[in-house]
Amino acid sequence: MAGQLAALLVLADGRFPAGGHAHSGGVEAAVRAGRVQDAATLGTFCQGRLHTAGLTAAGLAAAAADGLDPLELDTAADARTPAPALRTTARRLGRQLLRAARTAWPSPELDALATARPRGVHQPVVLGMAARAAGLGPAEAAYAAGYEAVSGPATAAVRLLGLDPLAATAVLARLAPELDDIAEHAARAARRARTEGTDALPAAAGPLLDITAEQHAAWPVRLFAS
Amino acid sequence: MSVTDPLTATGRMTAAGPLTIPAPRPMAATALRAEARIVAEPDGRGGTALPVLDSAGPFALRRLRPYGRQARVCLVGAMTAPLGGDLLGLTADLRDGAGLRLTTTAATLALPGRTGEPAAYDTRIRVGEGAVLHWLPEPLISAKGSDLRMTTRIELAPTARLVLREEQVLGRSGEPPGRLTTRLTVHRAGRPLYDQELRYGPGALGWDGGAVLGGHRAVGQLLLVDPEFAERPLPAEAPGPTAAVIPLAGPAGVVSAVAGDALSLRGLLNPERYVRDGALGA
Q1: What is the distance of C-alpha B166 from the center of its chain?
Q2: Which key words tag this protein in UniProt (chain A) (predicted)?
């Protein structure tokens, strides 16, 4: 892995052109409801998201990087993403990421995925496939997925609340040791999924993320797409 | 099962009937292993027979008067459970064409055990072709110091129908919750339809923040599966500001809700709102 690690920096870079900046990871709805108001409440929001949606995304990404059937993983992702607004978002982001990844790390597997599902596959599954094409392993794919689960909301909160960007970065830095645990947990689950199937992957959920995603999608005016 | 009334658990009164008093179980009692089983099948006369109704440990299964073509079974708590270390199982097999309504008389109260070991409560349900299951238990209350891991696994045939309600109350009145992990996995026609794990309490990081519960202490979901939803989706209107009606990727929907207490949660998860003539009914 050591020789390939630089590819992870490219993949996890917020400037990687995959459209993630248009999404707040649920923080826009949480700000409106008053549940995220400052750095402290952003911290608990991001921590909850990391250990729920983040862990679930990390497991899917790790399993895809490990070579599990991406179409089966896409069905498993549907079952773990009850809110239709979030399924639509995940497939749109997956489509955008696939386009960028095919240019960055051309691979027959990525081409085959684009042909099999022209309307898109859940983004964490594509992320795992992209990591695989870049020569990264399941744990690194899990890192990228888990990091994205918190970096998106933290960046969005800066715009929504006028929060000090340094404070938002400190939130992410404090969560780093927990992201280490999440990536390890996800990679372990992906190994089990080889023999036990996709049910062995994490399915952690945050009820408020799902409830507010549906409400947010119905707002007439919003800053972020999700 | 304990005697704790679900709605008084958070300091509210209830209109529920008298509760059966389970046998007391000293805290020093050794851990239990118990598995209750139900098999339901058509009785050949338009109703449902229960050829297997095996009570075990804390689960006393009582047959009630049928509801239409559905057999009715009530799970009565025969002793305080689960305590830490207990391994409890409940299996229901609905053969093709069977109908079953399963309820409980009281809330399930997870309590600490003697050793600090977690308790496990595993439910396994199979619903065959044309069969219909309504599984509407009273809430699960996670008491301070308890540690419970609950799994519910449901296999649905393509034409099976399901109404399932899960409610969790985090802590008795004024106390912090114990550790609670619940995983609900539903497969339909052999494919994953809904898979959700919820973790609360000490050790579940971020559980009380704005992404998960945001300070609410009661959380639940009402899962509805019916092939008819492919033609006639569920009404989309949310039953309240902290709830959403969420159509799944399949002929199914989940009403997901958080609330301050068990009573307000129950108001958001009323199956009558969604169970119509021809859909999910008996």
Answers
A1: 4
A2: Chaperone, Cytoplasm, Nickel insertion
Q: So where are chain A's domains?
A: 40-217
| Res. A41: pLDDT tops 90 | yes
Interface test with A, best of B180, B182, B196, B216 (most A CBs within 10 A): B196
**Backbone phi and psi for residue B279, each to the nearest 5 degrees, phi listed first:** -110, 120
Which of A41, A44, A119 is most worth mutating to test chain B (most B CB atoms within 10 A of its CB)?
A44
What's residue A200's pLDDT?
98
Q: What is the pLDDT of residues B187-205, one digit of tens each?
A: 999 999 999 999 999 999 9
Nearest-by-Cβ selection for A208 from B185, B194, B258: B258
CB burial string A126-135: b at 16+ within 10 A, e below: bbbbbbbbbe
Find tokens 């009273």 and name the residue.
B138
Predicted confidence band of residue A11 (pLDDT cuts 50, 70, 90): very high
Q: Is the dihedral of CA B129, B189, A84, A33 positive or negative?
A: positive
Q: Which long-range contacts (CB under 8 A, 24 or more apart) does B17-21 make?
A: B19/B105, B19/B106, B20/B76, B20/B77, B20/B105, B20/B106
Q: What is the model's pLDDT at position B24?
A: 67
C-alpha B202/C-alpha B205 separation (Å) is 8
Residue B105 DSSP class: S
Listed by number, the residues of chain A in 145-204 with a beta carbon closer than 8 Å to a beta carbon of chain B are 178, 198-199, 202-204
Of the candidates B148, B162, B201, which has an alpha carbon nearest to the alpha carbon of residue B2?
Answer: B148
pLDDT tens profile B215-233: 999 999 999 999 999 888 8
The CA-to-CA distance between both ends of chain A, in Å, stands at 34
Picking from B183, B194, B199, the nearest residue to A79 by CB comes out as: B194
pLDDT at B15: 36
Size of interface A-B (CB pairs under 8 A): 127
B83: pLDDT strictly greater than 70 = yes
Residue A76, chain B, CB below 8 Å: the answer is: yes
Which tokens in the block code for residue A156? 């969005």
> Mutual orientation of helices A138-161 and A123-133 as an angle, nearest 10°?
130
Tokens of B240: 């309240």
Q: What is the pLDDT of residues A48-92, one digit of tens each?
A: 999 999 999 999 999 999 999 999 999 999 999 999 999 999 999
Q: Look at residue B235 in the predicted model and tell me its pLDDT.
A: 84
Backbone angles phi, psi at B150, to 5 degrees: -110, 135
A14 pLDDT tier (thresholds 50, 70, 90): confident
Output the pLDDT for position B234: 86
Q: How far is CA B46 from CA B49, B99, B134, B154, B282, in A?
A: 10, 10, 18, 25, 11
CA B188, B190, B193, B198 torsion-angle sign: positive
Distance from C-alpha of B173 to C-alpha of B8, rounded to nearest angstrom: 9
Report CB contact under 8 Å: A209, B258: no
